[in-house]
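Chapter review: from sequence to fold.
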Amino acid sequence: MKIYRVGGSVRDELLGLPVQDRDWVVVGATPEQMTAQGFLPVGKDFPVFLHPKTREEYALARTERKTARGYKGFAIHTSPDVTLEEDLARRDLTINSIAIEDHSTLGNGQNILKSGPESHLVDPYGGQRDLQSRVLRHVTDAFREDPVRILRVARFAARFKDFHVAPETLQLMHEMVQHGEADHLVAERVWQELARGLMEATPSRMFDVLIECGALKVLLPEVDRLWGVPQRAEYHPEIDTGVHLMMVLDLCAQLQAPLAVRFACLMHDLGKGTTPADRLPRHIGHEERSVKLLRGVCERLRVPVDCRELAEVVAREHGNIHRSSEFGAAALVRLLERCDAFRKPQRFAEILLACECDARGRLGFEDRPYPQRERLAGALAAAQSVVTSAIAERAMAAGITGQKVGELIHAARIAAVAS
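The token string follows.
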């Protein structure tokens, strides 16, 4: 039995990055030998075990054979005869196909790169070379068998902004899309990779890669059609709606926005892709069209409720929030109510952050202030100072009930904001 640390932890350690989760592969062992040494079996589709002390995952070396379309269409073979090189060959990218041998009995999670010579590295597919050259390159032609890898490559491009996709890998991804492999991706995997890519350092690069290989048109046609759609130059010097969208997403990353905010920004202008040509570059009513389109995306990808709800409010109200500096107290309170800011103030703060990213994600506007955010936060604080329970008690004492109580609270909030 030999144990190797593989994958992302090895890659990140070689890049000098913090190591998060460690993955291990075991060569020359049977499931019975693993359990005899105290490992806990947890694998569903193939033999995976938890280390008795570290609780890290250890998988038996395996090979895969394509049997059907989609990422689940594989026959998996594990045996003590499967070599480390065979196991590494099934991985997606060369930079993820480097292993380090562990010389302890059960594998102890130690940092082997820093405790021993680099001769411990096993790199049959040139991963170190591609790390040095900053290249994302597929390991073997077996890459084409799993369409999730299209999304993974795009996500790695967003994480490692100084890496580029090898031309032959990009061509292979394009062929996979042309042959319909991307059509068979399941919603959960698409959302999982999309969400992870949105949270990377440069989200725009994920979309650059997906566009280049043709996958965005299949996976998110509502987003794909935004490129080439013009906007009014006095508001959007960058003109192109798709270019604006990428600027917004990268500003989200710069401001360390949470996932719900980044997804809301991705969805906020979908309606501009359906503006009739004779109305361009104006986009009257695009907010309502955006809401309708994003609902379809959320249903298709099974987007979590928190992301969906935030995206709907941002799509519907971002224009009003941008114009809110012109609003009086009554209009401000109505806007707060439509955003459900009184019940969900933390979500309202995220709505304002998304709108700031939208406003600053324009050519020449990147460093400009967004006073609407502070003004609306102040308006909410003023309106929240109204003690609604006291108003309700006084109303009940005067025989006022139902909708009239709500009207009194509404009026009191307007007065508080006005003052």
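Two observations follow directly from the output. Residues 394 and 400 are 8 Å apart (CA to CA). The chain has three domains: 2-132, 239-382, 385-419.
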